[in-house]
Amino acid sequence: MSVSENPDETGKTLSTRWLQRGRGWLRTGLGSAIGLVYPPACVGCRAATSEAQGLCAQCWAGLGLIERPYCERLGTPFEVDLGPELISPAAIADPPVFARARAACRFDGTARELVHRLKYGDRTELALMLGRMMAQAGREVIAEADLIVPVPLHRFRLWTRRFNQAAALAAAIARQSGHPCAPQALARVKRTRQQVGLTKAQRADNLQGAFKVLPAMRPLVEGRRILLVDDVLTTGSTVNAASRALLRGGASAVDVLTFARVVTDA
Fold this sequence. Notes:
This protein is of the alpha/beta class. It contains 11 helices and 6 strands.
């Protein structure tokens, strides 16, 4: 008698199948029951939605998604398409330390609310949705990356805030893309002032010497193209300082990916 004809083996196979089906039915039933008690709500405004961890139509319309045409270096959107691989006057006048920056959307409206809820409202579950949007917006830089590294917080700020939103976003992107993520690759060795309210020059001065690739982490970084992840790109001072530290630590190049970025009319 072959193995497939063994009654004991056949019985075990059937039992396993029924067990798997039972678990599936149980998960479906529990999901339906939870949906009745706690119906899906928009993560932006809490209005009713058809799916959990999603946005309602109004909040989705309030997202200023960034799409081409945009500056190949800074990722800032252009009003009109003048051809491929355009570089903005700002990138020419003041070239960034990093190679390229990409962002999913403008930092206003719904995007601002989502970032604030993640960062200050302990809504850590938002990192999954924001990470998916970032993975979509940053397909090209993700494809070329060897390692994903979040912008780190100083240990004191990490203790007061309890989590690093950039690390949560980086982990979500790593799961989406299958790329390795190394939160420990870059350290914030200097406790800096809050950047809010500072000019671009003051921000750069505030971040002088703030980041470092520690000696034990150099083998992780050396010779690799790094994708640096943060929640918002404002003036670029933070990601420039972090990129400079990664390059000094041996990285071959650094690209930047954020959920949102400030876009000015200038």
